[in-house]
TrEMBL record:
Domain of life: Eukaryota
EC numbers on record: 2.7.1.26
Gene3D superfamilies assigned: Riboflavin kinase-like (2.40.30.30)
Pathway of action: Cofactor biosynthesis; FMN biosynthesis; FMN from riboflavin (ATP route): step 1/1
Stretches assigned to the Riboflavin kinase domain: 1-98
InterPro entries: Riboflavin_kinase (IPR023468), Riboflavin_kinase_bac/euk (IPR015865), Riboflavin_kinase_dom_sf (IPR023465)
Gene Ontology molecular-function annotations: ATP binding; riboflavin kinase activity
Plastid among keywords: no
Source species taxonomy: Eukaryota, Metazoa, Spiralia, Lophotrochozoa, Mollusca
Pfam families: Flavokinase (PF01687)
PANTHER family: RIBOFLAVIN KINASE, RIBOFLAVIN KINASE/FMN ADENYLYLTRANSFERASE
Organism field: Pinctada imbricata
Protein name: riboflavin kinase
Keyword vocabulary terms for this entry: ATP-binding, Flavoprotein, FMN, Nucleotide-binding, Transferase
GO cellular component annotations of the record: mitochondrion
Amino acid sequence: MSGLPYFCEGEVVKGFGRGSKELGVPTANFPQEVVDKLPECVESGVYYGWANVDGGEVYKMVMSIGWNPYYNNTKKSMVDELITAIENDIQQSKDKLELPENQTFKSNNFFKDTDSKKD
Ligand SMILES: Cc1cc2nc3c(=O)[nH]c(=O)nc-3n(C[C@H](O)[C@H](O)[C@H](O)COP(=O)(O)O)c2cc1C
């Protein structure tokens, strides 16, 4: 897909709190400004990649970009289905990130907390 990999950074902000409570999948949320800057080619969907905090260890990550359609018009009794889907996304991401072409990004300078990156 063109436009990928895409690198972005921002503060971690509070989400709706459903990730931990209802889904058992704690999420870190980016503020709206970061989302607004996404290039158009990055469509709504689930993406895998790498993430770190303040130049620390780089971890595998999976990210949902979009509207959380599930929560707009679905009953709570179906939450199990979303949990299963997310767990499947997580497993697929873990596997894909093991591929050599994806491992290379883990050591990208972007993740280093160097002076040149500080403002
Ligand atoms: C890997 C992954 C897959 C997701 N897939 C969906 C989805 O298919 N449908 C949906 O409505 N939300 C999806 N979400 C978004 C979750 O609904 C959202 O992260 C959750 O509500 C937690 O948000 P909160 O921290 O703001 O409460 C996904 C999130 C992740 C991390």
